[in-house]
Fold this protein.
Amino acid sequence: MEILADVGGRPGLDCRGFCSYCYFKGVKAIRPFGCKHCMPFHKGCDYCSRAILEGYPGFKPLDMVVFEVAQRSFGSIPDKVTISGGGDLSCYPDLLPLARMVGQRDVPVHLGYTSGKGFAKGDEAKALIDAGVKEVSFTIFSSNVELRRKYMNDRHPSAALSNLRLFCQNCDVYCAAVLIPGVNDGHELERTCNDLADMGAKGLILMRFANIREQGLILGNAPIIPGIVPHTVQDFKRIVSEIAENYNFRVTGTPLWDPFTGAPFALATHKTEISKLPQVEKEATIITSSIAQSMLSTIFDELGGRVNVVSVNKDVGCLITIEDLKALDLKNVKDTVFIPGRVMAHDVEIRKILSRDGRDRRVFRGPDRLTVDGEMSISMDVRQVLDMEIEAFRELIDELNALGV
């Protein structure tokens, strides 16, 4: 049993200031998108009006977090406790006492996200390690202290990197870096990777910088950095592959790709595994993201071609909104349609938009997740990824066979 200790916190406010590339920087008040949690008769719920904005009121008091952990554990000793939240954990004032409390009885503690911006001395990691921290997710961006100072708003970059080294020497550390072209890619990325190899990091997640709506900025704050053109999907995939080939630690990318497991949609390159899936007996259309379209098409072509896959102009499926569906050409969309489970739109509006050509289409949400991105797959092996995908595709195919034409 794994338990989440949610400490709350607000992006930009409980992390010593926004990083220059932060997804939440410049977010304005938005109208609710609608989502799968909304009631049919009302667009807007807590998730699509508040939670998607990481709308915490601030860090939670220590006693509240401990009480919530106790409730979730049901009196049992958990296998692991992950401390996470909307801010930077290194800025949470009670991080050390919380780690000591949840790490009692040798329970391993995972720090779910920190950039180290709250560390000022350079040795804060020692006490956290003694308290039971065994795994750390650490946003490094760059090991160049001046780049961290400028782009991460890090007031003590040397202290943050000193703590990162201590964590790497004693814990399983998975680092992350949002890649900004001309800033921390190229030779700077090689320098960072050399430093991570020297420190002993277990892995590095490379994140493609998003700067326009089509890349996932749905909160009205594009562009985040004016004038920056992010890497193309093809260039980003090439960078991930090259870094993975040149270093011994695990390297993955998000929104794609994992050279070790083949995720996302590893089934597309492990076609013998597709035979484990049920037969597709009905016809339907799947609407997905621009990145997923070709891989999903490959899988469903192997399953007989009764399902066609069309894409909207959005890189990530769970960030598809009603505006993306309005722009979709419906000529190849069949009478039964499946969309990603987490599409950010209200079901009533979706059906209306997808029937605007006069065909009364039935629309269903598929599973929340058909595959995994680099943030998840970095700690998985090939078999785990394939098993997860097979289970998710079985669920989707069962829906297709029950609801298709």
Remarks:
- The chain has a mean pLDDT of 94.
- The longest strand covers residues 172-179.
- The first helix runs from residue 46 to 49.
